[in-house]
Design goal:
With about 425 residues, this protein is α/β, with parallel strands linked by helices. Helices cover about 50% and strands about 10% of the residues.
């Protein structure tokens, strides 16, 4: 662990310097980018709102009853009930829309139809490549790309585009030559989950083909978005497992786990590797966005197999509650409280729901059982960079490292500066 401690100095305050550079307009307007409005999840606002609502309604009905106008009192009660029911219904709609399963795969239905009808077009060729190496490499995700272009300088855009296109060509060649198998496990709550495995050819960097990596993709994403990570690890001698996260692709599940449910799935996948390939192996977990949150949460599980030696968290949120609070306020123009608590309660009341406040890597970080490397892009327009710092600060000293990548948007650090990214990642894993 001493070597991890030595690497910590370069990955903490020194790493964070320069993050507060002059930001482009899209980032200046990003709500709560510095985390000044961060609050610990609480049921207090909902309880206060409910009490005030009941007291106000009761007082209004009482006054009307004293005046003898019972019909008006009934109207007041009905209106109050309608407001409460409408607010709860809206909250329920928002969380169901945001956290319901996404089984579409790398392409939306309209894109698959376009590909079928125009296979030879430029866009059709791009969509075809996306089915093999993911949208991030093929640049097929136009809305995300537009936000990314506004967030970076012209030089950063040129650098990113060169790295992206170079990796796309190399990754396509690797995918066409490598042999992947599809595997399945049953989760602890009875869901059938799908994973994709690439076995490395020859020996690993440690002298034997005994190194494994589990790659976890993000919310509303697809397993193919991890292909270029798989390419890097396979080239480095790792055997690779890429699960389709629950509620995504062909993995079962009616709701998205947001890391909280997925943490147990990652433990199960690690156990599957040990059961099928023996105990004399070494496993690392590497995820981005929701997948990054998942690996931090999994790293704190008491029954994590001892073969799991390290985790890499790229672009993780510190907690779901503070991630969605600005979206309610700025995206939907709704009052943060009690809308946030209503949404949380509505999701918990689902048969397959859970408390979104539990999806909090920061809260679990202090109990991680393996060294964790935290990576984040300075220009992340989706998960504010302050969340990376909160996770890093919560991790045990001596078993953590931080990498902040300039010119990188959400989940784009590995393409914004691949030499820096992979040299730091593999150096960290070699020390773990």
């Amino acid at each position: 662990m001493d070597e991890i401690r030595q690497g910590e100095g370069a990955g903490s305050d020194a790493e964070w310097k320069g993050v507060s550079r002059e930001l482009p307009p899209i980032l200046q307007s990003t709500p709560d980018r510095e985390g000044k409005g961060w609050k610990s999840p609480s049921w207090g606002p909902l309880a206060i709102s409910a009490a005030a609502f009941v007291a106000g309604s009761s007082a209004g009905v009482g006054l009307l009853n004293k005046s003898g106008r019972r019909g008006a009192a009934t109207v007041v009660g009905a209106v109050a009930t309608a407001i409460a029911g409408g607010a709860f219904g809206l909250a329920r709609f928002l969380v169901n829309k945001s956290f319901s399963a996404n089984a579409s795969g790398p392409l939306a239905q309209s894109e698959r139809q376009y590909l079928d009808e125009h296979p030879g077009s430029e866009l059709g060729a791009m969509l075809s490549r996306a089915t093999r190496v993911g949208r991030l490499l093929t640049n097929a995700d136009i809305p995300t790309n537009l936000a990314y272009r506004e967030a970076l300088t012209e030089d950063e855009i040129k650098t990113y585009e060169w790295n992206r296109s170079t990796e796309e060509e190399a990754c396509l060649a690797w995918v066409e030559s490598a042999v992947a198998t599809r595997e399945h496990i049953v989760s602890e709550d009875g869901l059938t989950l799908t994973g994709h495995v690439w076995k490395a050819e020859g020996d690993s960097t440690r002298g034997a083909s005994a190194d494994w990596v589990i790659l976890a993709h993000g919310w509303n994403g697809d397993w193919t978005e991890m292909t270029h990570y798989a390419h890097a690890y396979a080239t480095h001698g790792y055997d690779v497992l890429v699960p389709e996260m629950r509620g995504h692709g062909t993995s079962e599940g009616a709701v998205v786990g947001m890391g909280w449910l997925d943490r147990r799935d990652l433990v199960s996948w690690a156990r599957w590797i040990v059961d099928n390939y023996g105990e004399d192996i070494r496993i690392v977990m590497h995820g981005h966005s929701m997948g990054a949150a998942s690996v931090v949460l999994a790293a704190a599980e008491a029954d994590l197999p001892e073969q799991v030696r390290a985790a890499v968290s790229d672009s993780a949120y510190s907690d779901v509650i503070n991630l969605i609070a600005p979206a309610l306020r700025n995206g939907f123009r709704l009052p943060t409280h009690p809308t946030l608590e209503l949404a949380r309660a509505a999701f918990m009341l689902r048969l397959d729901g859970y408390d979104l406040a539990d999806a909090a890597p920061e809260a679990a970080a202090g109990g991680t059982r393996v060294p964790v490397m935290v990576v984040h892009g300075v220009c992340d327009t989706f998960v504010p960079p302050y969340m990376a710092r909160r996770i890093y600060d919560a991790l045990p000293e001596g078993s953590r490292e931080l990498l902040v990548v300039r010119g990188a948007n959400h989940c784009q650090s590995s393409l914004a500066d691949p030499d820096l990214y992979w040299s730091r990642v593999f150096a960290f894993l070699d020390r773990a």
